[in-house]
C-alpha cells in the first residue's frame, strides 16, 4: 500500500521541526546536565523577547551523506533587537557536528557580515566550535570554494562582539579575535588548533587550558576583554557593552539618563589620592567618582593592570577612560599596557566615543625583558594611534608625569584640552633618578649634597609651571575633575560632523 502523501503544510512543519531539534534530545539533555545553554537558548537571552527573525533555518551540509545530520548546518543565524536596537546574531550550535564550519555555514555567516555593513547594526557571535568540518573542506574543491577575499576584513563600520563559551577553534577563534569586544566564559579554550591536533603535530602532550584557556587570554594574550562565570553572564556583558556603542560608525552612541547621585562624591577625590607621589592608591576608585553612578564597564581588566581602560558614561554620554593605576607596578607602563591603550584608542575612535586620560605614572617600564618584548615599538604604536584619533581627547594629570609616557597619556599637546590637579608634577624623569644620572650622587654616599641637588632638580615641575607655558589649560581642585570633563565634552563636541570622527583607525589590526 502506498505511503500517504504529505501536504505542503505537513512537509514544511516536519522540516521545520527537524531543523529546530538541532542535534537531537540526547545531546541537548547532556548540555543541560552540564549547565550549558544551547545555541537557541543563548539567542533567546541575547535578543529582546519575540524579536528574533531567523535566516537559513533549512540549510544543511552540501555533503549528501550529512544532509539529515546537519540541521541549520550547525549555525543559527538571524536578526533581532538588543534593548530595542537592531542587531544580527550568529550562534554556533555545538550539538551539530561540534558546530564545525562548512562552505554552506560560512556562506550564511558571510551574508550577515555583509548585511551589518550595508544596513548599520552590530553583529554578535555566540562562539563554540571544533573548527573546520571534514570531509567538506578536504581536497582542492573544498579549499578552493572555502573563502572570499573579504571574509575577515574589519573596517569597523559596525560593532562586532563575541562570546567564547567552550572550545573555539577555526572560525570561532578567528571571529573572536576579530571582534571589538570578546568575553570568555571560564572553562573556554581558544586556539588555532585543538590540543589533540597540536599533540599529534608536535609529539608533546598539550593541556587545553595551558594552550588557550580563558585565563591565558585574559592575562597573557589580552584577547579577553572580559571574563564570565556563566553563559548568562557572558551574554549580559555583551548586551551591556553594546549599550555604550552606536549601531554603526555613522552615528554617536545613545545618551542614557544620568543616575541620581552622579557627581555627588567629588570631594572624596582629595582623600582617595595621596598627596605624596610615592604612596599608592587604586585609580578605579577615582573613575567611579568621576563617572555617572554605576556606569563603569572595564575592558581587559586582567591584562596590563598598570593601565585601566573602561567605558563609562559622564553626563549620560559614552566616554572611554584611560587611567594609570599606581596599585600595579606603580603605574609604570609595560608592553601589555601599551597594547591595551592602543586597542582601546582604536575602539573609541572607530565608534565616536571621546577619550579621557587620567594621568599618574612614573614612565615606561624599562629593562632587559621590556626591550626584548618590543617596548620601543609598542610605545610608538600607541603614539601613532593617538595621532590618528579624531574624537575629542581630554587629559587630566593627577600627580606624577614623567618622560615620553606623559606625551602618550595626552600631555605635550597630544590631547585637545588639558587640566592638572594642583598636585601635578611634570618632568623628563623622576627628580630622585635625575640627580644620580646628572650628578652621580646618591642619598647614602652624600646625603647633604644629594638633598641640595634634588631640590634643584625638583624646581619648575609643578602644575603651575606647566600652566605658565600653557602646557595645561587649567589647574584645578581634584573635586572639579568631573565638571572640567563635562565642560570639555561640550566645548569639543564636533558640531560640524554631528559628533562623528574621521575613523582613521578603522583598519588597524584587531590583534597584534
From TrEMBL:
Q: Can you say what this protein is called?
A: Acetyl-CoA carboxylase, carboxyltransferase component
Mind telling me which Pfam families this protein's record contains?
A: Carboxyl_trans
Where are the residues of the annotated region Disordered? 1-33
Give residue ranges for domain CoA carboxyltransferase C-terminal.
268-510
Q: Which family does it belong to?
A: Belongs to the AccD/PCCB family.
Record-annotated membrane-spanning stretches:
none
Organism lineage = Bacteria, Bacillati, Actinomycetota, Actinomycetes, Mycobacteriales
Say which species the protein is native to.
Answer: Rhodococcus pseudokoreensis
- Compositional bias, Basic and acidic residues, is annotated for 1-17
Q: Which SUPFAM superfamilies match?
A: ClpP/crotonase (SSF52096)
PROSITE patterns on file: COA_CT_CTER, COA_CT_NTER
Specify the CoA carboxyltransferase N-terminal domain's residue ranges.
5-257
